[in-house]
Amino acid sequence: MSSIANKKVLSHLGAFLFSIFLLGAALWALYHELKAYKLQDILESLNALPKVSLLWGIGLTALGYWIVTAYDWLALQYIRHPLPYPQTAFAAFISFALANTLGFVLLTSSAIRYRLYLAWGLSGFEIAQVIAFGNLSFWLGMLSIGGILFAIEPLEIPDFLKLPINSLQPLGGIFIAITLGYLILSFWSHDKEFKLKRWSFRLPSGKLSILQILVSILDWGVASGILYLLLPQTEGLSFPFFFAIYLLAQLAGILSHVPGGLGVFETAIVLLLSPTIHADRTLAALLAYRAIYYFLPFGVAALMLSFQQWKNRRSKLSNK
User: Which among 50, 7, 11, 4 is positioned nearest to 285, based on CA atoms?
Assistant: First the structure.
């Protein structure tokens, strides 16, 4: 085996071991926080969730998944290969809903988009551009709004994250600088072609870049708003402060490479909210959030994809 192959194996092994370590540390921290409570306490807190909040959560979930369809719509404008909106919305919803729950978001969503868009006439390179544009948009929203919130909200970083910094303010400054740098490049170099090996690409225009960021901020804002509504209303827990907590927890879940951030995200939320909300009530809200924002869309997407596959098979059989 070559030295390059050995390095790749060691790199993947290191990432896997880090994920296992981070998940273990998160679960231990969560156990430590919840050991004073019984299962009955959590079930009672879950049962006490206001029905109105649950209905609002479902409504905002529908809004949130409508917003994510704009990622693909903007991407198709960027590559100058627009498709009818129903097709775009179908591909975006299916890929996001399935990938959010199954984990390995980049791999899962890319495979779904590749299969759908290839059947609708896009080339492999165009599909790669759509995928890259969507992922870039997703992160730009996190960096922009996260940068602002991390810079102004005094958040303490949970110990289990093992980060080399104690304050999020430097991280917020870095996030803002990256976002501004991208916008400057988009406004001044969008008509310039960049080459990556045998492929060439150009940056989105300044207007399209701003839309990327706005759509992503809306996506993050609605997703965090759902959990905020499910939590007990507590004095001193403003939405901007909670939004910063939510983004940090999501960042921890994403970087852990644990499917769906399961366990890591919940632990971060419970620990960061522990000064203001009892852990059993936070966990109850998180369970409802997982069901509404992850599992419900996952079920709908699985049914929609199965129906489409059935229609395609039926159409092929009728044409024989």
Answer: 50
